[in-house]
């Protein structure tokens, strides 16, 4: 029986962190295998990306991802589409399993991202990308002089509001309780901008309405059950993200929110296993920072392989 190939690097994920790592590793002739989920990454669900350097007229999110993938493939990166269902140690290597195959690798880059949480209310699916966004830093400029609502009461909701403040005509924050969860300093920044920010407490969205694009939202006060309707052109959801780390939780150190814990050089607790992008970052969550950490992970993986060769353990 032929001996099973041992990969130098397997990258798990299909977002910009994964493709950026793949570009660096394939250019270093390490022939990475990238296993991406059969569902779109966050950028592929976005419309125009205006803050990724190098594109003065912006670039569509799906196009940016496709370009990065083509760039990596040009240098020899191998792509497979499958759900990764297992991650194990295999002697001094690692075994990555999908529902169909098992792969052995010397290093792993985890870049499985974090999925924005959705409300699950009527109209949400219909208006995704048509007025509903989960990233104000990405999309705020598209809502210049428009009326928008932000849902949530955590630091992300405060950040989204601050990002929108520069552009939107009016921002209404809708929160399900009567106090914010966000840090005091973030709350203070938002609360002092009361010229165009309004807060509706104890309320939840029950439906997002519109025609071709978002035109409003129906809300309900959960203490009084009183229903009302707000006119708006944008709905920004900031009710948290869930890092996609379930399959790693037995072996990889995660923080209390489930994000992979990495050091300054992007190492996880396991030798030869690195993490890049939103799966290890709940603060910046930007395409460019994800690409940056993807590059860092690739350089560290390359160094790790060189070291294995130098000490005769390759
Ligand atoms: P979060 O702290 O979990 O806050 C989520 C907010 O959404 C909460 O106010 C929550 O309400 C609300 N929410 C959750 N599910 C909801 C639902 N189904 N319907 C309506 N509202 C819902 O999430 P986050 O703001 O994304 O922050 C995550 C972590 O990242 C935090 O540790 C935060 O400090 C950190 N973070 C830091 C920075 C920064 O340092 N600059 C920026 C962003 C995030 P309740 O309050 O009632 O639970």
List keywords for this structure.
binds NADP nicotinamide-adenine-dinucleotide phosphate; 5-stranded parallel sheet; FAD/NAD(P)-binding domain; 2 domains; 7-stranded mixed sheet; alpha/beta; 314 residues
The unreliable regions are: none
Number of domains: 2
CATH class category label of the largest domain = Alpha Beta
Kindly state the mean pLDDT as a whole number?
95
For the secondary structure, the number of strands is 19
Largest sheet: 7 strands, mixed
| Residue share in β-strands | 25-35%
Oligomeric state of shown chains: single chain
Write out the CATH superfamily name of the largest domain. Answer: FAD/NAD(P)-binding domain
Q: In whole angstroms, how far apart are the ends?
A: 22 Å
| Bound molecule kinds, no repeats | NADP nicotinamide-adenine-dinucleotide phosphate
Give the helix level as a range of percent. Answer: 10-25%
Rg over CA atoms: 22 Å
CATH third-tier fold name of the largest domain:
FAD/NAD(P)-binding domain
CATH architecture call of the largest domain: 3-Layer(bba) Sandwich
**What is the general shape?**
elongated
Number of helices, where a helix is a run of at least 4 consecutive DSSP H or I residues = 7
Structural class determined from secondary elements: alpha/beta
SSE string: EHEEEHEEEEEHEHEHEHEEEEEEEH
């Amino acid at each position: 029986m032929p001996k099973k190939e041992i990969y130098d690097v397997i990258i798990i994920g299909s977002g910009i962190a994964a493709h950026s790592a793949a570009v660096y590793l394939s250019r270093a002739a390490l022939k990475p295998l990238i296993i991406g989920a059969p569902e779109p990454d966050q950028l592929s669900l976005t419309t125009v990306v205006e803050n990724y350097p190098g594109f003065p007229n912006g670039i569509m999110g799906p196009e940016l991802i496709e370009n990065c993938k083509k760039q990596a493939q040009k240098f020899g990166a191998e792509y497979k589409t499958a759900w990764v269902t297992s991650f194990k140690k295999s002697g001094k290597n690692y075994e990555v399993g999908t529902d169909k195959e098992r792969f052995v690798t010397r290093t792993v880059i985890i870049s499985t991202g974090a999925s924005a949480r959705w409300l699950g209310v009527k109209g949400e699916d219909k208006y995704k990308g048509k007025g509903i966004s989960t990233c104000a830093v990405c999309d705020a400029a598209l809502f210049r002089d428009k009326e928008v609502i932000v849902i949530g009461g955590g630091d992300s909701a405060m950040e989204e509001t601050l990002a929108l403040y520069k552009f939107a005509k009016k921002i209404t924050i809708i929160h399900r309780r009567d106090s914010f969860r966000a840090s005091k300093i973030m709350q203070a920044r938002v609360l002092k901008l009361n010229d165009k920010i309004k807060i509706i407490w104890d309320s939840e969205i029950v439906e997002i309405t519109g025609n071709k694009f978002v035109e409003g939202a129906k809300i309900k006060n959960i203490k009084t059950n009183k229903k009302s309707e707000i006119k708006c052109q944008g709905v920004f959801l900031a009710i948290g993200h869930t890092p996609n780390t379930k399959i790693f939780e037995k072996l990889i150190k995660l923080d209390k929110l489930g994000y992979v814990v990495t050091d300054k050089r992007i190492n996880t607790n396991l030798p030869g296993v690195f993490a890049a992008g939103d799966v290890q970052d709940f603060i910046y969550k930007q395409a460019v920072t994800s690409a940056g950490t993807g590059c860092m992970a690739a350089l560290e993986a390359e160094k790790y392989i060189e070291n294995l060769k130098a000490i005769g353990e390759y």
